[in-house]
Amino acid sequence: MSKQEDFDFYCDVALKPDAEIEKVYEDEKILAYHHTKPFWEMHIVIIPKEHTWDVRTVEDPQLFADIMTVAQNILKEIPQEQLDEKGAKILTNIGKFQDTPHLHVHVAMGGQIREPI
Questions:
Q1: Are 106 and 88 in contact (CB under 8 A)?
Q2: What one-character-per-residue DSSP string does 63-97 give?
Q3: What tens digit of pLDDT does each residue of 84-116 get?
Q4: How far apart are CA 13 and CA 51, in angstroms?
Q5: Domain residues of the chain, as ranges?
Q6: Is 113 helix (H, G, I), strand (E, B) or coil?
Q7: What confidence score (pLDDT) does residue 5 get?
């Protein structure tokens, strides 16, 4: 699992009221913000505010649907020419690829600017 099994960046840092993050979207259930150490030219992270380990443990299917709707809306804001030129991806990690024990979905566009941890 995580390289830091007991540390949940999202619960412990990102969801705190004084978190130094650039929010893209927020409602009562979901937060989306620019990754603090991006891997791609554009890198946004979408998380549920309620702690959920990963996509397999989401109890309410509507929550995951809502997260995907946020991802879709973020991508709708990007001009088609940029998407055609740079490409985009939506992804989530499980197991050894998941760096923190909290469901998070990445919306990324453009070239990779650093390697994932």
A1: no
A2: HHHHHHHHHHHHHHTS-HHHHHHH-EEEEE--GGG
A3: 999 999 999 998 888 889 999 999 999 899 887
A4: 13
A5: 9-112
A6: coil
A7: 57
How far apart (Å, rounded) are the C-alpha atoms in residues 67 and 65?
5
Report pLDDT digits (tens) over 23-48. Answer: 999 999 999 999 999 999 999 999 99
* CATH topology assigned to domain 9-112: HIT family, subunit A (3.30.428)
- Residue 96 has a pLDDT of 86
Tokens of 24: 């893209």
44 neighbors 34 (Cβ within 8 angstroms): yes
User: Rg of the chain's alpha carbons, rounded to an integer?
Assistant: 14
Model's pTM, two decimal places? 0.89
- Choose among 66, 55, 42: nearest CA to 98: 55
**Of 83, 8, 9, residue with least CA distance to 41:** 83
